[in-house]
Batch of 2 targets.
Target 1
Amino acid sequence: MNYCNALDNKSHIKILLSWLYEECNSSGGDGDALWYSRFYNTEDIFPILKEFNHSLAYPYKTVELIEGDINWGQEQEWILITNKIEKLQNSPEWIQAKIIW
C-alpha cells in the first residue's frame, strides 16, 4: 500500500494525537482509543508520536512500535495506532474512541 508522507502532515497528525490523548485522559481513568490509519504508515507516525509524547507535561510511559502496531499509554489509558483493518474489525466494543483516518 502507498501511504501519504507523514512528515508533510506532521502538524495535522499532532492535532489528532492531541485529541486522542485528551480523550483518553478525560475518561476518568479508563480511556481507550484506536486509530486505524489508512493514510499514514505507523512506522512514519512513530517518530512524530515520540516527539509529541515527549512534549507533554504528563507524557505516557509506554510508546512502542511492535510488529507495525503502536502502543501508547500507561496504567488504564491506552491508544493503539495500526494499519491493520483486522485490529479495527476485531476491537472490543468498550473502546471509547475508534478513528478511521
Target 2
Amino acid sequence: MRALVLERCAWAATLVAIAATVRSWYHITRSVEAPLPAIWPVSPPVRPMSSDSLGVLTSRIVDSDPFRLDRKPAAVAYGAAQDTLPNRTAAAPEAPRPPLVLVGIVGPPWRALVDGVPGHDGSIVLRAGQSIAGLRVRNVTASTTTISGVDTTWQLAVKRTWP
C-alpha cells in the first residue's frame, strides 16, 4: 500500500515538472530581428594596383623558387623520364610475406594446422622440422608454433582454444 502511495506521488511530481517546463517554454520570447553584425568598414586602397605591378610581382615570386631552400631551380625536371636520369639501380621489390594463421594444434605428438601457406589452399598439417614453400616449422607446442622464413620468424598462437 505504501509503495502505491509513493508511486502516485512520483507521478504527480513528474506531471507538475512537465507542466512547469511547458509553461516556461511558452513564455520565452524571441527577438524578431537579428542584431546587426559589428563589421568594421574597409578603407579604400591608397593607390590602385596596376596589372604591370602584378606581373612584376608574379615573375619575382616564380624566379625566386620560394619552396626550395637554395632558391634555385632543380637540376632534374619534374616528371623526367627514367632513361634521362643518371644510372641508378632499381631496388628489387621484396617478396610479400605470407599471412600465416595458426588454426589449431593436434596431438600429441603436436602438429600445427596452419592457414596462409603460399601455394596451398586451406589448412595444412605441419610438424616440427618440416619445410614447405620456403618456410620451416621450428617448434610446435600445445598452444604455439614457431615458423621461420628467409628473413622473418613467426610466433603463432591459437586464438581460441577448444572448450
